[in-house]
Amino acid sequence: MKEEEKNKNNPLHGVTLQHILEVLIERYGFKELGAKVDIRCFLINPTISSCLKFLRKTPWARAKVEELYIKSMGKQS
């Protein structure tokens, strides 16, 4: 199976974690994002770089952020 065929149904294919985080922060802000995804890096002295560092090391947290991104992209109008 070609790589393109494997990824055609993956909504995150080609989307970087940094882009996901920037879109969510622009849409919700750190405070609301912290309420939607209970992760301390969004609530205590949040910066994009510190959040990226945490999310890259923590698969369960990254999965929650990616899930919120997919859901929020579906609600765009």
From TrEMBL:
Pfam families per the UniProt record, alphabetical: VF530
UniProt cross-references to InterPro entries, sorted A to Z: DNA-binding_VF530-like, SAP_dom_sf
Protein name: Transporter
Domain of life: Bacteria
Organism: Sulfurimonas denitrificans (strain ATCC 33889 / DSM 1251)
Listed GO MF terms: DNA binding
